[in-house]
Amino acid sequence: MNNSGTSDMSNNLDNILKSVGLHVMIWGGIFILIAGNVGCIGSILVFRSQKYRKQACFIYLFWENIASLCILDCILLTRILESGFQISLMDASDVFCRIREFISLFMYQNENTLFLFATLDRILSAQRSNKLRQWSNRVSLAYKIIILNALVWIVITSHRLIFYTNTGESCRAQEGIYRTFDTYLDVSLSAVGSPLVVIILAGLLWHSVRSVTKRRAAMQGQDHNQQIDLQLTIMLFLQSVLAIINYVPFGVFILYRMFTDYWIKSPLLIAWEQLIVAFIRLSSYLFAAGGFYVSIISNKSFRKQFLGLLGIQTSVVNPATATNTGRQLTTRTNNQ
């Protein structure tokens, strides 16, 4: 009786965990998909405006948002259909399986490196050395890097268009040496490389923010362009924090899956894993979906430009104008 009762409780818990994971993926995924599409389109419109299109940093961010949009509409959408509604388009053919897995790795890495180039551009622009600052905001170089970056990732990830197959249960790399190679490549890029580089550049960017803030505080004042530069640097730092939240749990999940793939697991453990994986998979789309909202909260210039595109005019007082006006008012008061 006790064994039967324990088994029933375990089965009930399994079903509850699976149900919770299912609803997390459906409703959480749909929310991120809608919010992310709105955000990416908003960022694309802002970064293509006349004010931003001639700056290298925003050129990187524009194409990064294009990659983010592809991740949301190709990868997240199919994940919601597969995990939430048990509709697997990858079961239809090996062609769809291979294209989906290629786009997944290619777009994730392309998005990440474009953001890192934008971050590196801001780090260089904040340096004291003129030689280092000369490498920042080089528009022609930015376009060359974007093209070269895409070509490099196509070469590195295109093997999935050939050696991935539908195993009946999932779309996976073909067994043998290739599966080992693909696993270690995914681990080195997604689980180790991306989080590590993002953390390093986030640290350098934070150091740049502090250095710039101290230099500006030592001066009598700062002009409008300097304020915009500081806001942009802070915006990118906050996005770097979001990127760390995006990459680190997903990297840990990839490492865990690699080491436990062939373990014999109880149904209860599998149910817990599926629930945790549902949250981790959703968190891996936060960077693609959340950049716009970080920008609009932390960057006044970005917010003003976006509201202007919507036809909403905002009044921004120029510090120099405000100072002159204050002096005029003071003079009039004294004369009276």
Task: Write up what this structure looks like.
With 336 residues, the chain is an all-alpha fold. The protein is built from 12 helices and 2 strands, in the order ααααααββαααααα. It has helices spanning 2-47, 56-85, 94-125, 130-133, 139-157, 160-163, 177-218, 224-260, 267-283, 286-298, 300-309, 319-335; strands spanning 164-166, 171-173. The chain is globular and about 65 Å long.
- Sequence of secondary-structure elements: HHHHHHEEHHHHHH
Straight-line N-to-C gap: 97 Å
What would you call the structural class? mainly alpha
Q: What is the general shape?
A: globular
How do the strands line up in the largest sheet? 1-2
Keywords:
mainly alpha, single chain, disordered C terminus, 12 helices, two-stranded antiparallel sheet, 336 residues
